[in-house]
Amino acid sequence: MMFRIARSRDGDSITHYDLYKVDVKKGMTVLDALFQIQDRMDASLSFRYSCRGAVCGSCSMLINKEPRLACRTQVADVKGNNMKLKPFPAISEGPTGWNPEIEILIEPIPNMPILKDLVVDMAKFYDVLESMKLWSESEDEDKPRVQSPEERKKIERYVNCILCALCYSSCPINAVKEEYVGPAALAKVWRFHEDSRNSDQKRLLETAKQSDGAPLCDLIMNCVKACPKGVAPGGAIRKIKNL
Ligand code: SF4
Ligand code: FES
Q1: Which residues of the chain have pLDDT under 50?
Q2: Which of 37, 80, 158, 210 is the most exposed place for a label (fewest CB within 10 A)?
Q3: What pTM does this model have?
Q4: What are the φ/ψ torsions at residue 9 (nearest 5 degrees)?
Q5: What is the pLDDT of residues 34-54, one digit of tens each?
Q6: Structural domains of the chain, ranges and CATH numbers in brackets
Q7: What is the reported pLDDT for 228?
Q8: From residue 65, how far is each of 70, 116, 186 by CA, in Å?
Q9: Ligand with an atom nearest the CA of residue 51
């Protein structure tokens, strides 16, 4: 199988695509294919990974124009366009010469600056979580904060977020509005808003209502389709908007 991979000679943009022939074995993931290329053909190819088991959120990339985790995507399953995302240029315009019938196209996730090849700068994505103070605050820090299984169940979906940024990179609003905090941050607002141990729901809602937050979301729902963990950030944003 041929892999067409985006490269960045200058460091901050895609400068060209390199073609590699990968010896595909049964059960091989896209991440395995990248290891083979790096080990046998091109040690300079840069990509990010850690857990190899879909829990660290490091290996996000655009695979045949769909935002996916490389460690969770089997080479044999990369066919066509299954997510049916609302298009915007980075996910709808392929490079010259790419033949989806015989090649797998690998590119860095959109909406973030490229550092090298498939590695993007996620600083802004993480910084927003800190600036919005997306954590649980209690009036009495010394008191144990007990949570029942039922209360935990309410936030289960949102707790599963692995901060992979696939929602952020699939969002047409993030593509054009740099200031938008993005779907993951707003899903986290809802996660802490609904957390029975949290005593400051008002502050969280106020944060989400800022001009760079929920008001910018058009409920396009690309984030729901792209999320590999079923967090469905768009649903959380709809709830925030309803409030
Ligand atoms: S909400 Fe889903 S897609 Fe977005 S960062 Fe969390 S796990 Fe990734
Ligand atoms: S390597 Fe951790 S999510 Fe893919």
Answers
A1: none
A2: 80
A3: 0.95
A4: -60, -40
A5: 999 999 999 999 999 999 999
A6: 2-120 (3.10.20.30), 123-242 (1.10.1060.10)
A7: 98
A8: 13, 18, 25
A9: 2
